[in-house]
Amino acid sequence: MTEAQDKESTRRAVRDAYGKIAQESGKSCCGPKSSCCGATAPNALAEALGYDDAELSELPEDANLGLSCGNPTAIALLRPGEVVVDLGSGAGFDIFIAARKVGPTGRAVGVDMTPAMVEKARANADALREQTGLDNVEFRLGEIEHLPVADASADVVISNCVINLSPDKPQVWREVARSLKPGGRVAVSDIALKQPLPQALRESVEALVGCVAGAVLIADTECMAREAGLTDIRLEEDAAAVDAMVRGSDTLYEQVMALLPPGKKPSDFIVSIKLSARKPG
Asked: Rounded CA gap, 132 and 90, in Å?
């Protein structure tokens, strides 16, 4: 298999799995009322990751599918009138929170490569518009390696537990830098490795979809952001987030944990990270 074929195979596996999550509306590829990242109750995971009860109560139904590993909107420091782009926006969870923060003079753009997710997100956007009158959200179908946004058009780029799924992460970071205005900001929550994974996990489709097998070392994440031209990089680990994701683990995480060496748990290998950065200028 060529490198290009391998990358497309990875994208197909991710697209199929997350398309199934969207179509089952409140279920996942791993079991009822559960996400591929582990939490049995999406709001319980969100609360554990620092989302405010008021934020969660204002979301359209089915916007939160439990796919988070952090809270990028909390570190983005969004301001009224800004344009924010969400990489891998899913059913719209973070972008709806961002839309309220940037207000009617701002714009919130979600990008996702899964047609079923974009369809669900657009339906949720209609519900938000009817509920609040807020009409500053749009969702675009596209890959995060080739963002369907103009050069230097975003004030802020956010992403929540998605970049680890990409088979070409350096290209994602280059796209982030391209799409940001000079002085624009990045706020990313993602999974990173504390140490290399056992080979069985690296080759597991379940571990890929579960945000484990595609992750890279913490230092590599920082290096890719820096090589893309971003500066003022700040990176913080959140070990408790992984335990929250695995708590009440579903069928998928049982399969992932079965591939770990005896006596090891996921948090021995992976950690949730919060990364913020800026584009020069």
From this structure: 21
User: In sequence order, which residues have a C-beta less than 8 Å from that of residue 175 and are 6 or more positions away?
Assistant: 144, 145, 146, 147
Alpha helices (runs of H) in the chain, residue ranges in sequence order: 3-24, 42-48, 53-57, 72-76, 93-102, 115-132, 169-179, 199-202, 205-209, 218-227, 239-246, 251-258
Domain of residue 156, residue span: 3-278
Residues 6+ apart with CB under 8 A from 150: 179
- pLDDT, mean of each 10-residue run, the chain (281 residues): 81 87 61 41 84 90 88 95 97 96 97 96 94 94 98 98 94 98 97 89 78 89 97 92 68 71 86 96 91
Number of independent structural domains in the chain: 1
Give pTM, 2 decimals: 0.90
Evaluated on CA atoms 28, 189, 227, 106, the torsion sign reads positive
Residue 219 belongs to domain with CATH number = 3.40.50.150
